[in-house]
Amino acid sequence: MRVEGVGGRAGEARTLPYDLLHLVPPQSAPDVVKNSALADPQNPAGYVEVDRSTLQHIRYPDVFALGDAGSTPNSKTGAAIRKQAPVVAENLVAARRGRPLTAHYDGYASCPITTSRSRMLLAEFDYDLTPRPSIPLIDTTRPRRDMWLVKKYGLPALYWNLMLTGRA
What we know:
Layout: E1 2-4, E2 13-15, H1 31-34, H2 78-96, E3 109-114, E4 120-125, H3 145-163
Antiparallel strand pairs: 1-2, 3-4
């Protein structure tokens, strides 16, 4: 793979060896968020500036954000949102009642990585990149056929039938 400016001067291209290459396109908040007072002024991606644990806005205590709009320093994945939503719900109710925010998000994210036409592994981790496997008795960090079946059939069913309806 040829890259520019890595380990050298800007504009200088180098070839880097790799065993696995996982590319992520640049991401940012939608323009309506990026161009608003809610955006994090220190973040050029324009995400809503939130406390990474409570998901409450730093400057506007009546605002909470999660998922693709929030400034949490982790992957913007459906698995992350699934863990963020209950935190926002609980903390929003607490804030409206004038109580302390007791729900906390630990940065959980999950990335299914297909390693062949019939195998996949599931990388699950928190803000500290500590592994956080969520399926008991199965080593999801190794490529497995059953994990590929989960990705092909289980995750779409979870997303469409449970997550989007608020039941997962």
